[in-house]
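Re: magnesium ion structure - here you go.
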Amino acid sequence: MPKYFGTNGIRGLFNWLTPMLALRAAQAFGVWSKRGKILVGRDIRFTGECLMSAVKSGLVSVGCETIDLGICSAPAAEFMLKKENADGLIIITASHNPPEWNALKFVDNKGITISKERGKEIEKLMDNIILLSQWNEVKPIKKIENTITDHIFAIEKNVNLGKIKKANLNIAVDFGNGTTSLYLEMFKRIATVTAINSKIDGYFSGRLSEPTEANLSKLIELVKKGKYDCGFAWDCDADRFVAVDEKGNFIIGDKVFALSVLFLFKKTKFHKFCLHRNFINRIKTNGKKIITTVATSRVAEDIAKQYGAQISYTKVGAPYLSEAMFSENADIAGEEVGGVIWKEISLAKDGLATAMKMLEAIAEKPLSTWLAELPQYYNSKTKIPVQKEKKKKIIEKFAMMQKSRNIIILDGVRINFSDSWVIVRASGTENYIRIFAEAKSAKKATQLVKKYEKIIARLIFHETEK
Ligand code: MG
């Protein structure tokens, strides 16, 4: 049986993810979703309109009530799923990938993104006969024009707009020619905004879509030269968000998540104080839950522990975060690339909501002061080439060697020590075993990586000798 689903939906170049494949996948998803009410949204890529037509045709042909959300961010589409009480959602976006890529991402009626494992059910339907609707059962496609404004309204409802406006913030934003350009007015209403790469453009001619430090050099330079309170940037579909502090220091995704946890808990503390003045000693952040992936920095966990919150780990990938958010009824979830899920908006990573929460925090004190509150860690990493068919075996053998009780075997092996940790994982897309360590000193992080690099090299050697 062909395999279509990757970690997050069906992704490929246009000669692989063809309109025919998109139509078939949409038909299968329509059947899987009990031929109900399905939303469809897309990003700004050139192939988006063509794939969207195929997806809509596929849904209509199996009797779904199909609703076109138009061009929108991924978090906006996921918010609309909840608002419209729909049975499913297909988002056509290749996220941070280069312009020649595209993808179909599937979300169920609860707002949970379909993982590779659950995608197998849809793949099975794709390979079987699908019963089409009778001509008189075909439903007209509806359009929703207010996707972005509804999403903005939900975000604004969950921050203190008055507080942000009062702070007279001066911000720089790099929209990367993506769907976030549609949110310019939201920022303009509350701050003075200098926007770059704000023209929607399927070539991403301003910069590559992935919001890495290297791709954001123009934004960093702008913040360094001007008097800005911060710089913000996203990927094309706006689930990833990163920032630059007022001094021009780039803030990686891990820290964006840790700051988000800090903002949430500080705010909880403040509200509890207002509500229960007489019980200030009983600050109830206890019972709060945060979710993150096994590859995410220890910083967020340290913050969570300071506030008595619980932490749960998942495999790496957005679908696993949204699954855990739902099943554990958690308060916040996030990952190392700057994706944060806010319970009150949806079960999807929402880079726009994260940006507004950050503005609310900056209205209180400078971003660099917030950053100084985070525990300091150093990291080191390496990758070791390995044959594709041996990757799984090596990780299994390595897992069996571990005696410590403080290990997490979910997606590779994460070993936690008192003030450091290391993860050994097989790369999902390349023929490598990756090793990443984080510690309180750069020296310790390097030592950890070297130690496990030797162990893995030995395992690979023995496996190859067989
Ligand atoms: Mg993305």
